[in-house]
Amino acid sequence: MSLKSRGATLESASRSGMTRSCTFLCLCCFFSGMFFTNRMWTTPSLEDNKRNQDSKFNHENIIHKDCDSMPRKVVWLNGGLEEASNSTELTEPLDQTIADLERKVTVARAQQKAVDSSFPLLDSSKIVNSKSRHKYFMVVGINTSFGNKKRRDSIRATWMPQGEIRKRLEMEKGIILRFVIGHSAIPDSDNAIEEEDKMYGDFLRLEHIEGYHELSGKTKTYFATVVSLWDAEFYIKVDDDIHVNLGTLGIILSGYQGKPLVYLGCMKSGPVLAQKDVKYHEPEYWKFGEVGNKYFRHATGQFYGISKDLATYIFKNQNLLHKYANEDVSLGSWLIGLDVEHVHDKRFCCGTPPDCEFMAKEGSTCAATFDWRCSGICNSNTRIMEVHEHCGEDEKTLWSSSLYKFGED
Predict the structure, then answer these.
(1) Which of 118, 148, 173 is the last residue of a domain?
(2) Is the pTM of this model over 0.90?
(3) Out of 4-18, 207-221, 249-263, which region has the weakest mean confidence (pLDDT)?
């Protein structure tokens, strides 16, 4: 064989060996890859399954233990609590509730900011709008109702000045007098009051629906309304079967002028009546301790008064203040937690003749007179004139008194 053919044979053998080597190497890589992939996707063993199930059980057990005291799958729907059948029902109403609350908070903050700008809490220098208003000494609101025209007429004929004299009293002495009444729940029942107001012009109409069981709400609305209408030192509430000596009242109040937190009246602490179907029944009697307990000290409902800063406090917090069955108890509860000076003066709770007459002779003229057994003057339509004649103050007392000061800012 020639050298050339021998070389060709060797070259061909060499190429054949290299091909077999590459093929063998590729096969090794392929089987190695298959082996590795198979290991990654092998079905878990029984031991692995058991370990995974135990872990899941322990995790769920921890969650249940942490949430045993929490109501599960309960959402607020249509104004009430309902069960949710799945997580979607639970999440969507909750998101909506949170969104609603955020909107309400935003509105409430805006309203509170607006109130604070004009009526800051217990800051007598800023409780009116930026524009200065005429200042008064006291506002006397006479609580009345739709069927009490005879009572109103008896007051107009005795201790409540009328016409130009009443206007003069406002301008010279800073004393505002108004009959206080809301609106009727019965259509057209307000017509008679509107006609009476046109005749006398001595009513203050409240945004309130009248009713015996709504007196606490009326008291709250009254103080919130008058402090926003008239910038006065004191705000008084009396019933329409009470006799009042305005001059004597002014002299008593002048001794507390400049004191920001004053609560005046005939202070008492009556029993909390738990029995149903009795007058002055207190449905929330349990809040005052054991049955048979008494109320905290508060002014009797026939007559009481508060200073401007306390009236402003009621104005600012009227939506938060709780109403009890009895309006005098409600007012006392609104003030019990404040640093208030409770002023008890016997001249605010005099009895009818001869009691008030005797006190006048002793030099202690009564500011408010009524019968305890009637929570007012019994048969006041006719008897208030008798009280006025025997226990009424001298007219000079009202017009000559200069102890209290008021006027423009």
Answers:
(1) 118
(2) no
(3) 4-18
